Task: structure prediction
Amino acid sequence: MVIVVKAPRLRLAVPFALSTVMVAGSAWLVVGLPLTGLTQVVGAAGLLFFGVAGGWILSKLFSHRISLILDREGLVDNSSAIPGGRIPWDQIARVGITSMNSQRFLGIDVRDRKMLPSSDSAFRRWIDDVNLGLVGYPVNIPSTSIDRTLEELYDLIVRYWKEPKAREELA
Result:
């Protein structure tokens, strides 16, 4: 048995609608207002940021990708735009539920961050450092990207992490 956690696509409809509104507002700043160049720069930055975010959300809305897999070897995180990848059970140092700006996350810290697939990218190492500073964990699974509560997922991960014999039921 492998435990598969999918992304709840319906939950992404509201963030997609909000990003669409922000793209429209940013476009209005760029072409609709006869103001200074500063508003056009802010509008262009908003177009870029919210356009990319909206595109990522849209791809998730129509995707059947899996957010998280728990198997005998560990877990595979694919829950965010910059996923943590495979994390072996013996590399997990701690797990906890955290939040920032009313968004809740399941945080995972590892013993050796160099073993994360993301360690090959300087940008991803920087993101991990930022995550670590903001919420206390380098790998974060957002509550909006999983089809169960963070508490349920926390209990599953802690069970398989702390009880190696329990992993035998996983494929």
